[in-house]
Amino acid sequence: MKPVKSAAEINAEAIDMMRRGAVIEARALLRDGAATHSGDLAIWLNLGGACRALGEIDAALEAVEGALAVAPRSFHALLMKASLLEKRGDLRMAGLGYGLALHQAPRPDQLDEPTRRALEHAREFRARYELELRARLIDASAGAAALARSPETRRVAAFIQHLTGARRPYHQQPLVFFYPGLPSIEFYPSEEVPWLADVEAATPAIQRELMEVAGGDPEAEGFTPYVNHQAGVPLDQWAELNQSPRWNAYHLLKDGAPVRGHADRCPATLAAVRLAPQAEVSGRSPVALFSVLQAKTRIPPHTGVSNTRLVVHLPLILPPGCGFRVGNETREWVIGRGWVFDDTIEHEAWNDSDQPRTILIFDVWSPYLSPAERELISRISEAMDDFHDLRPADAV
């Protein structure tokens, strides 16, 4: 009785045949091998390649389906399937298929040159597919959008971007306090934070007070590291900035109370902060501070503690080369132009310049909370801290 060849032997022999131009013989060998070794991914992929070389697109697709039955997330199988669908003229299905392959793609430096070229083609094809799909969906929504209010049109636009791959879904990921039912909005539109314009109008007065306390020195007395974890705390992404003056803060309100010797030096700044609906939780909020990010420093992606409050940024000293991202959206800073964002959505900041960047930071209630909810959230948060006997400096 003739011994059965191993899958490795069949694959090696078939590849050698195809190199010598004996593709029909290689296809026959691989078909027999697939019947004997149906769980071997390489046999199915090589069979698909042999059929494709012979122009047998449907047979190649059948072989690729065999490969995907073995390994549904196989990058090479998904990429081959999409390319075969493209070759057959099923362009829309090829666009979907390339999207699946790109989700499983390894780093380009892990691929051989032909596969890298195929990967680049996949990206280009998928980009054209997404543009075409986006245009179709925008056209389909045009009539209804004309009747929608501004927040609704923004949500519809984001919905289309999610569907077409232009926007990744980011969700709230609060470290401690998650209050259900609040929307995940990266940057809040002006109509939902109408008080922001009055805060912005106070920018010159706030800048003067900043200069008085800092004197142009970002490491002046009273400025302390923003990240200040003690020994024994897992630092993760904060290891580089922990207890470092590369990200300094001058606290005006901290743990829900004015900071002695700081707050009284900045009355105009605190008056501007009080124009906003300050989040009030004993031992925790409100918070207000001048935040100084030194030159060539990056704040790593992270999320905040509670989705019941939002964070306000007002830029005061702004060299070029600074940026800020929340979720999908990256914004450029403009002096005196603030924004309100949900810090429980992943965000990061950077200062690539040669000079420090300084902003005012403070927190506010989410506009989606009723007065009754705000009161209840405060009581519950305070009760939790009391239960654990947490002083403000120890609070999570």
Q: How would you characterize the overall build of this protein?
A:
- The structure is a single chain.
- By secondary structure, the chain is α+β, with helices and mostly antiparallel strands.
- The chain folds into two domains: 7-128, Tetratricopeptide repeat domain (Serine Threonine Protein Phosphatase 5, Tetratricopeptide repeat); 190-394, B-lactam Antibiotic, Isopenicillin N Synthase, Chain (Jelly Rolls).
- 43% of the residues lie in helices and 15% in strands.
- It has twelve helices and eleven strands.
- Strands 1, 2, 3, 4, 6, 9 and 11 form a seven-stranded antiparallel sheet that branches.
- The longest helix is centred in the first third of the chain and has 33 residues, at 113-145.
Sheet with the most strands?
7 strands, antiparallel
Computed Rg? 29 Å
H/E series, N to C? Answer: HHHHHHHHHHEEEHEEEEEEEEH
CATH architecture of the largest domain: Sandwich
Brief descriptors of the model:
single chain, 396 residues, alpha+beta, Serine Threonine Protein Phosphatase 5, Tetratricopeptide repeat, Jelly Rolls, 2 domains, seven-stranded antiparallel β-sheet, four-stranded antiparallel β-sheet, 12 helices, 11 strands
